[in-house]
Amino acid sequence: MTNAEKYVVAILLLLHSVVSGDEIKTSRTVVERPVASTVWPLPQYIATLPVWYFVDAATFRFRTSAKTPQCDVITDAIKRYQRLTFLPDCPRLRYQPQDIAWSNTPAAQTLHELEIRMKTCEELPHFDMDEHYTIEVSVTAPEARLRANTTWGVLRGLETFSQLMQTVNDTHFLINATYIEDRPRFSHRGLLIDSSRHFLPLQSIVQTLDAMAYNKMNVLHWHIVDDQSFPYVSSRFPAMSEKGAYDPTTHVYSPKAIRHVIQEAAARGIRVIAEFDTPGHTLSWGKAYPDLLTSCFEHGSPDGTYGPIDPSKQGTYIFLDQFFQEAADVFPDKYIHLGGDEVSFDCWRSNPNITAFMEKLGIEGDYDKLEQTYVQRVVDLVEKFQKSYFVWQEVFDNGVQLAEESIVHVWKEPHKEEMWNVTNMGFRTLLSSCWYLDY
Q1: Where are the domains of the chain?
Q2: Nearest by Cα to 30 from 5, 6, 52, 1
Q3: What pTM value is reported for the model?
Q4: Biggest alpha carbon distance in the chain?
Q5: What is the mean pLDDT of residues 332-347?
Q6: Three-class HEC string of the chain
Q7: Span 45-182: which CATH code?
Q8: 136 is catalytic
Q9: Which terminus of the chain faces fewer neighbouring Cβ atoms within 10 Å, N or C?
Q10: pLDDT tens for residues 257-301?
């Protein structure tokens, strides 16, 4: 009989006892009107019983089993959840069980520890990470166990365990007998932050990571640069942030700051995927390197404005090769987001050099084909650095030959039709259109 089946049997037996009026003689406190803690997100399977144990925050501990390998991520997480599990300002129980008496509570009624057992320690989260876990707060004795194959399952289980606690007062809590088996439905559960249009201090980013961990989200999509500013400090091209950031001293992300974000994210089981969107959304790149961008023309002469990256110059690709090689080293995740959305063709149309380049390629007037040509070269060079990539749906729609592991990011309607087209071609897809604030 599995643990889940045991809990079903226990529930049926308990219900029978209640219905028949039998006295439930156990060493545990039975609360007539239990307040079931709500776990979010809802686990794949959860069974609870109105059998409660006392928990004293001052003496409770999280203990790893002897067979669990040493793991810095878990050591740090235990310290974090020792605090998060017993927050004194959480909402209190709306009632007090009549027989609570902390001064003379029998030891048999008190849960003293959560035993953690894990098979494999991993230091960096990844696309295929195993987040499965089980939690058992025993129905027959004050014992609690958390089981997981990997670091990431333990982190998700610790978050769930913290949500099972019911606050009685600042130092004392209740938890009821519970069995949980859980794993995520989706391997990618992400949140996008845009630190180019609105600079985000490091503290705000870490607070966002905390909020993501509470909701068991596992990907921070960092839209780190855009037209408005270039806060990413490049070691190879420092002028990019010196001239492109809102402020080159206060509104930038140094390599040290980026490492800090990646470390804080990993400590919470969250991947960091940086987005460097091209060929559009790149006006800030041109503050330091205007030759990267297309010079716009009016009446046959440059008008002093710039458009997307210039795909006709070989120097563009030499620069991007060096830039993405650095980005591949700075951001350790297997994936990088290459953007590719919302490219305006007006400036390309106005530039005679672009026109001549397109004639040479035999694609006169086909600016979708020009964009495809550019993006194809970018994805090919990124693959050299052993990186897979996300692209916005326009890249797929324009017929770029994508690698098998590519992920197409759908953000526009009609999303169902686009999702069908992408998956029908054998690619994985990421859906964001339902949460895009403009629609």
Answers
A1: 45-182, 190-431
A2: 52
A3: 0.89
A4: 94
A5: 96
A6: CCHHHHHHHHHHHHHHHHHHCCCCCCCCEECCCCCCCCCCCCCCEEEEEEEEEEEECCCCEEEECCCCCCCHHHHHHHHHHHHHCCCCCCCECCCCCCCCCHHHCCHHHECCEEEEEEEECCCCCCCCCCCCEEEEECCCCCCEEEEEEEHHHHHHHHHHHHHHCEECCCCEEEEEEEEEEECCCCCCCEEEEECCCCCCCHHHHHHHHHHHHHCCCCEEEEECCCCCCCCECCCCCCHHHHHHCCCCCCCCECHHHHHHHHHHHHHCCCEEEEECCCCCCCHHHHHCCHHHEEEEEECCEEEEEEEEECCCCHHHHHHHHHHHHHHHHHCCCCEEECCCCCCCCHHHHHCHHHHHHHHHHCCCCCHHHHHHHHHHHHHHHHHCCCCEEEEEHHHHHCCCCCCCCCEEEECCCCHHHHHHHHHHCCCEEEECHHHCCCC
A7: 3.30.379.10
A8: no
A9: N
A10: 999 999 999 999 999 999 999 999 999 999 999 999 999 999 999
d(CA 63, CA 359): 69
For the chain, what's the residue count? 439
- Residue in 123, 298, 342, 413 annotated catalytic: 342
Q: Alpha carbon of 85 to those of 65, 90, 163, 171, 187: distances in Å?
A: 20, 10, 7, 11, 26
